[in-house]
Amino acid sequence: MSFPPIRPELAGIEPYGAPQLTKDAAPVQLNVNENPYGPSEACLDDIAASVREAARTLNRYPDREFTALREGLAAYLNTDGGQGLTRDEIWAANGSNEVMLQLLQAFGGPGRTALSFAPTYSMYPEYARDTHTTWVAGRRETDFSLDLDAAVALIREVRPNVVLLPSPNNPTGTALPPEAIGVLCEELGESALLVVDEAYGEFRREGVPSALELLPRYRNLVVSRTMSKAFAGAGLRLGYLAADKAILDAIRVVRLPYHLSAVSQATALAALRHADELLGKVDELRKERDETVGWLRDRGFEVADSDANFVLFGLFEDRHAVWQGLLDRGVLIRETGPDGWLRVSIGTPDEMTAFKTALTDVVKELR
Ligand code: PMP
């Protein structure tokens, strides 16, 4: 037996993660769907002052129920599709990855099944593996949309306990059609949960509704969000969800006590006070995204429609060569998604110009 005595199914598995390069190695970083705009001085001052206050109490455990933060998150969600949500329907953890892991700890497990539709977010099968939940992935259409009839048929066959559906989807950028959530919630009934992962929800195009609007109608619906993307808070590690109170009570059974530090709570609350500023770049990023989609299409690339802050494009015979060529020119994007495709996150106008210049150059060189 080799050392360490790890669970056999984990032996030899590489930890999940995109290549992390320094700014020197890759000055233009467009690989993990971050918001390129940092906080203003005013916001920094507020965060620093709030953390300083929180630090006075660091000898004590933090508020285990992060009550003020749940209240702030509920108020924010009510400005973006939430219908009278209260803190009793809000939960948070260290990134929406942790929120969804907790969901599978409580609602998945041995003998239970989680379902999604590929290509999709590559952490979902990891949450399933780590909670001993059976993982099943159906397929998306060639344009990465979800065929609702096929999805319903697969649900009838598999009888999942949890369905994880990002809207917009990562890495394709595809939003769910508005009718999908109702149809799937009805199909699942109260013996299973539909988790709509709206990590990129704020970037959706005009007219695309948020699943938050449907929470009053479906008790088995969970909507997950994060401060990592639109809120420009990837370093904060703060994800959250809105759902029925009974679902929250189930999560409380599996969460570790005091999982959200006093520093995280204070920082997130300060960020919420500056929501207008932090979210202020969303419109610009959406415009830049639409512009990038148009630019790529004009040059003959295939591009998936995107409701997110990234764009999946291709098709390349040797995508690794294109990825490497871009990196050689200082532009780091992500080699992910189906074969032949690459994903670029939307950055500042200067960063997108650097990306376009580098891509034009690489394609010419590889031709
Ligand atoms: N869901 C999706 C679809 C994502 O792409 C990501 C991050 N890449 C997450 C959830 C997790 O984000 P975080 O843990 O930063 O909230």
From TrEMBL:
Pathway listed: Amino-acid biosynthesis; L-histidine biosynthesis; L-histidine from 5-phospho-alpha-D-ribose 1-diphosphate: step 7/9
One Pfam family cited in the UniProt record for this chain: Aminotran_1_2
UniProt keywords, alphabetically: Amino-acid biosynthesis, Aminotransferase, Histidine biosynthesis, Pyridoxal phosphate, Transferase
Source domain of life: Bacteria
GO BP annotations, alphabetical order: L-histidine biosynthetic process
Enzyme class, first EC level, given as a word: transferase
Reactions it catalyzes: L-histidinol phosphate + 2-oxoglutarate = 3-(imidazol-4-yl)-2-oxopropyl phosphate + L-glutamate
Cofactor needs: pyridoxal 5'-phosphate
Gene3D superfamilies to which the protein is assigned, alphabetical: Aspartate Aminotransferase, domain 1, Type I PLP-dependent aspartate aminotransferase-like (Major domain)
Residues of the Aminotransferase class I/classII large domain: 28-354
Any one GO MF annotation of this record: pyridoxal phosphate binding
Modified residues (N6-(pyridoxal phosphate)lysine): 229
Quaternary structure (record): Homodimer.
Homology family: Belongs to the class-II pyridoxal-phosphate-dependent aminotransferase family. Histidinol-phosphate aminotransferase subfamily.
PANTHER family: HISTIDINOL-PHOSPHATE AMINOTRANSFERASE, HISTIDINOL-PHOSPHATE AMINOTRANSFERASE-RELATED
Record protein name field: Histidinol-phosphate aminotransferase
Species, as recorded: Nocardioides cavernaquae
